[in-house]
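**Sequence with structure:**
===
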Amino acid sequence: MFPWIEEIRAFLPLTIAAAEADGGGVCLSGNHWRLRVNTNWRVSATEIPAISPSISGDAAKAHGLDDLIGDEIVQVGAQSRDVGLDLSLKTRTGFIFETISDYPYGEWIFSVWRPEDERQVPVFDLEGPVAPDLI
């Protein structure tokens, strides 16, 4: 098991309050957390792709990104890639959100802050993908 996965699991479940896509990627967030993905990503339901990587804006919403809003992330795992380990997030209703990095750094960042912190100063900040030699 990878230690960083256990650190993220300590904050579960995480309610998805917003799921926004733009030309650079996607941002999932809740009342005290945020995941910004600057690379390819995929949403699937029971292993069947629902959204292709890098679809953004209205096209992503039309293909089901909005279905994540109101759901909860209940499982966190690692998706192995040649350049490192990316996130794999499973929701209570069975959607799987995965990051698919092209580079070994700076492709996504996961942050959590105290719910009462209006400045949103992270108490946990993880930038990925996480290279295997750092584990």
